[in-house]
Amino acid sequence: MTRTARLIGAPTDYGANRRGVDMGPSAIRYAGLAAQLAKAGIDVEDAGDLNVPLADERAQDDSVELGDGQARFIDEVEEVSTLLADEVASALRDGSTPVALGGDHSIAIGSVRGSARDADIGVVWFDAHGDFNTPSTSPSGNVHGMPLAAALGIGDFEGVEWANARGLNPENVVLVGLRDLDETEKRVIRESDVTAYTMSDIDERGITPVVEDALAVAGEDTDGVHVSLDLDWLDPKEAPGVGTPVRGGVSYREAHAALEMVATSGVLRSLELVEVNPILDQHNETAELATELAASALGKRIL
Ligand SMILES: NC(=[NH2+])NCCC[C@H](N)C(=O)O
Ligand SMILES: [Mn+2]
Ligand SMILES: [Mn+2]
């Protein structure tokens, strides 16, 4: 059966302090995502963009001081997450594979919750960062550094109905490619039941065994896996158009190998591409890369 991918744009930057990431969905569409997927034999539907609310104070959220245990634009993040969760859940109900286009990584709160609405899911999180802060541990107050903790109901997020993903067990959550964690965030990750592979694991073992393990852990006893791809997972030389670049990321080939394994595993339930910031990009190459990697994850083959 051919797979149908449903594109859902989430043009938001409320979770990040770098404006411009809200133009990610346009940049990714402009890079030819729909055409590339069609060429790879995938049926494509485009649900358009979510109606992202306008903030009262657009330039910045001055009510939040750094490290004061709050989160910037949390009401706007809630609104976007709720819309996205509904879209993701309805795509799945229609038999399509949701492909959420960010936007900053706070959108994962919505996509994970939507994917886990009627199912038990696992998550593979390809990222330089852990995104495991809570308002009290976050050094920045930016919600894009918090979505995994939010989905898992950790710390301040315990019992936060709109953010928690019911069908998600931390034992099925796997982070891959970590290289930039805050000190308190490290502790929260260690105290949780998630599995975390750093860049050192990839250096030592190679990308293939690490991703093989990640998919097995995420998929075990679940109905499928949500794959969250933060483009800052890749080395900034390959993906310059991101708000929080960190040296020493995976290469173009390693990234393709990983996402081809996602396709081969057969466990992919939902996908998201986040943190593409066209203002910081060079000739839209990060959006093009996101497009190519999505095609690999959805089953594109060279021969
Ligand atoms: N999705 C991202 N790019 N997250 C970056 C998070 C950076 C930092 N750890 C913070 O919490 O502010
Ligand atoms: Mn990141
Ligand atoms: Mn991230």
List keywords for this structure.
303 residues; alpha/beta; Arginase, Chain A; 8-stranded parallel β-sheet; 10 helices; 18% strand; binds manganese (II) ion
Which whole number gives the mean pLDDT?
A: 95
Structural class based on helices, strands and sheet pairing: alpha/beta
What strand line-up does the widest sheet have? 2-1-3-8-7-4-5-6
Order of helices and strands: EHHEHEHEHEHEHHEHEH
Number of strands: 8
Shape-level CATH architecture: 3-Layer(aba) Sandwich
Specify the CATH class.
Alpha Beta
Could you name the ranges where pLDDT drops below 50 across 5 or more consecutive residues?
A: none
Small molecules held by this entry: arginine, manganese (II) ion
Helix content: 25-40%
Domain module tally: 1
Binding site for Mn(2+) 2: 232
Cofactor: Mn(2+)
Binding site for Mn(2+) 1: 105, 127, 129, 131, 230
Pfam family, one: Arginase
List the helices and strands and how they pair.
Layout: E1 4-10, H1 24-30, H2 33-39, E2 43-49, H3 74-93, E3 97-102, H4 108-115, E4 121-126, H5 147-152, E5 168-178, H6 183-191, E6 195-198, H7 199-205, H8 207-219, E7 225-230, H9 252-265, E8 268-274, H10 285-297
Arginine binds next to loops.
